[in-house]
């Protein structure tokens, strides 16, 4: 005797084909017998029962479609009541361009960031919303009718969302500059203090603390003008043989003058070097003659002084020491003015400092370091050189 048929997976009737499996002839006959039995229970023929099943399936599909449409209408009504619009990027429209031009003209306190290895301007949404709700926007809207009306915060957000809708500005967030460089042979990019590296976020929001970057660069008439000028310049150089004779002659004289000037500079540099080499042995440390061609100074400053001696390491140290002493004296004067300000007379003149100034206290001798010779007279007062140093300022 054969074993009874086992039920299929997930409670399927025995003999039914599994999903994705082609039914066998026996399974087809079994399904036909089941349809005939179901039709006989309802008092219908098999074709009438099949048509009834099709009608029921169609009604269920239509009911699902109506439910989805009602749900979409409810969501749309809620968005309209809340004053928010979904962001779906598309081509720029005139209203978005008008809003972008207005915000670009406002002081949004932008900061430079790095986006896809390019420098962009980033701003906060809070300042943009504040600009859209300002009297300046109302004044600009009276002149430009393309600007949308802004009455409250939701309408201001809707006006701002025109920027990401038209891909004029997008929301970004800060990322690590070394992100994405793992496993590469090249070194990490040098990090600049205060310069963020950002990336574009998928969800575009209009919260106050959200940052956006400008992808809209404004009017390009300057770039177009520069491009036309460069094209005209190139064409003029290419068509140089067709120039009038007096223009070509003028260009030749001008080029000769420039070559002569360059040669003069080279000649002066060689003469200065020869003079320095001669004076370096005859009158050390050496003499330099103007102009100072290799210093980072202006044109007139390069001729001052007319001549100068070569600076030695001692001269450089003396300059640094003098600069340090001057700074210390300035700090000492500030400290003395802060501790005791001189009294002023009726006319505003300062009273003489020596009139009521008490005698300075005797300076005690500084302790001798270990291994040094003792002083000749222990009771003698050791006075330091009269130089304003940082140490003396600290003792006062």
Write the layout of secondary structure elements.
Blueprint: H1 25-41, H2 46-82, H3 94-105, E1 111-115, E2 118-124, H4 125-132, H5 135-143, H6 153-160, H7 162-165, E3 169-175, E4 196-200, E5 211-214, H8 221-238, H9 245-282, E6 287-289, E7 307-309, H10 313-339, H11 390-395
Parallel strand pairs: 1-4
Antiparallel strand pairs: 1-2, 2-5, 3-4, 3-5, 6-7
Helix pairs in contact: 1-2, 4-6
Distance between the first and last residues' Cα: 119 Å
Q: What general outline do the C-alpha atoms trace?
A: elongated
Spatial sequence of strands, sheet with the most strands:
1-2-5-3-4
Could you tell me the mean pLDDT? 76
Note the main sheet.
5 strands, mixed, barrel
What class would the helix/strand composition place it in?
alpha+beta
Q: Look up the CATH topology of the domain at 94-179 and 191-218.
A: Arc Repressor Mutant, subunit A
Provide a concise account of the structure shown.
By secondary structure, the protein is an alpha+beta fold.
Explain what the structure shows.
The protein is an alpha+beta fold and 396 residues long. Among the domains are: 55 residues; 114 residues, Arc Repressor Mutant, subunit A (Orthogonal Bundle), CATH 1.10.10; 70 residues. It has 11 helices and 7 strands. The strands form 2 sheets. The protein has a 5-stranded mixed β-barrel. Strand 1 and strand 2 form a beta hairpin. Helix 4 crosses helix 6. The radius of gyration is 45 Å and the shape is elongated. It starts with 24 loop residues before the first helix and ends with a helix. InterPro entries: Sec62, Sec62_asco. It is a multi-pass membrane protein. Belongs to the SEC62 family.
